[in-house]
Amino acid sequence: MEMARWNVAVSTTTDQDLRRFLVNQGRGRKGELSRFIEEAVQAHILELTAKQAKAANIKFDETELASMVDEALDWARQS
């Protein structure tokens, strides 16, 4: 996988807390900070995407949503 380099600034307290957390989790090796950031960013993107989807679908009741999901699944199975 191709990697991008980021330069980020965080407070000293956040840096120390995260490094201490990683060590306590047995993740004190080289590269663990990058892996943690990657996981955290992906989790946050998923959380925000889910929030957006919920907000966009608030106007539909449960039956309508279930019907749309069934329709999408039928379409996917036929493709």
TrEMBL record:
Example GO biological process: regulation of DNA-templated transcription
What is one Pfam family matched by this protein?
A: RHH_6
| Higher taxonomy | Bacteria, Pseudomonadati, Pseudomonadota, Betaproteobacteria, Neisseriales
Which residue range or ranges hold the XACb0070 ribbon-helix-helix domain?
Answer: 4-78
- Name recorded for this polypeptide: Ribbon-helix-helix domain-containing protein
Specify the superkingdom: Bacteria
Q: Extract the Gene3D superfamilies matched here.
A: Met repressor-like
Q: Spell out the InterPro entries in the cross-references.
A: Arc_rbn_hlx_hlx (IPR013321), XACb0070_RHH_dom (IPR031914)
